[in-house]
């Protein structure tokens, strides 16, 4: 994947290094060229000086071939404007914006822009959205035996009932995230496009659940 990051602060530089270590190509944008000093000397990605909502700047960063765009500058307005430009002008579906004001975050979630408020923000949360790899634990009980996990169920489950997913994967759906709000479903709740499925399962069952969902997705593909 090619990923464009706006903002080379502690978060942006950390993401850039992690993504590069995972084998992805990265371009990072910052209006302050001094910010690039946070990047390690061996960083191979592109450094672009400018504003992330400037079309020429993000075009120079390779937005037209990007699989994802993440905005983690210090300004809410800059982050959301650049995220919208990436999605609406350049057609990048996978965008994430950091928002300092949680009330704004809810508004932008409803507009279809995934946001993470700084009060609960970590690099791991951003990476979970950029690089979904099956069921990723969000919470564990004190014994470590039970986990709450976000399930990458794939778009092929859209239109299916929650009960069908539970039966196929042998797990329990705890709740759905829909348009920025949490929804506790019943077995007849239909999964909609954009829903994020959260499951409760035994820690030892995650690989089995992943395999079951992957097998179904492979069959439908």
TrEMBL record:
Q: Which domain of life is it from?
A: Bacteria
InterPro entries named among the record's database cross-references: K_uptake_TrkA, NAD(P)-bd_dom_sf, RCK_C, RCK_C_sf, RCK_N, Trk_Ktr_HKT_K-transport
Would you tell me the Gene Ontology cellular component terms? Answer: plasma membrane
- SUPFAM superfamilies linked to this entry: NAD(P)-binding Rossmann-fold domains (SSF51735), TrkA C-terminal domain-like (SSF116726)
Q: What range(s) does the RCK C-terminal domain occupy?
A: 133-215
RCK N-terminal domain mapped to chain residues: 1-118
Q: Name one GO molecular function term.
A: potassium ion transmembrane transporter activity
| Keyword terms | Ion transport, NAD, Potassium, Potassium transport, Transport
Question: Do you know which Pfam families this protein is assigned to?
Answer: TrkA_C, TrkA_N
The molecule here is called: Trk system potassium uptake protein TrkA
This protein's species is: Actinomadura spongiicola
């Amino acid at each position: 994947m090619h990923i464009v990051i706006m903002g080379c602060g502690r978060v942006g530089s950390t993401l850039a290094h992690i993504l590069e270590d995972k084998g992805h190509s990265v371009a990072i944008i910052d209006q302050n060229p001094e910010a690039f000093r946070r990047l390690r000397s061996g960083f191979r990605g592109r450094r672009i000086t400018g504003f992330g909502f400037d079309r020429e700047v993000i075009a120079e960063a390779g937005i037209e071939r990007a699989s994802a765009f993440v905005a983690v500058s210090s300004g809410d307005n800059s982050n959301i404007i650049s995220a919208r430009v990436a999605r609406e002008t350049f057609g990048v579906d996978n965008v994430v914006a950091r928002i300092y004001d949680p009330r704004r975050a809810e508004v932008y979630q409803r507009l279809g822009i995934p946001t993470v408020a700084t009060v609960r923000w970590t690099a791991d949360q951003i990476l979970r959205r950029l690089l979904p790899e099956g069921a990723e634990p969000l919470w564990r009980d004190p014994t470590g035996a039970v986990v709450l996990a976000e399930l990458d169920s794939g778009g092929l489950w859209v239109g299916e009932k929650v009960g069908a997913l539970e039966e196929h994967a042998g797990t329990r759906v705890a709740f759905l995230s829909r348009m920025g709000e949490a929804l506790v479903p019943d077995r007849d709740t239909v999964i909609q496009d954009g829903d994020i499925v959260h499951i409760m399962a035994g820690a030892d069952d995650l690989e089995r659940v992943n395999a079951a969902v992957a097998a179904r997705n492979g069959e439908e593909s």
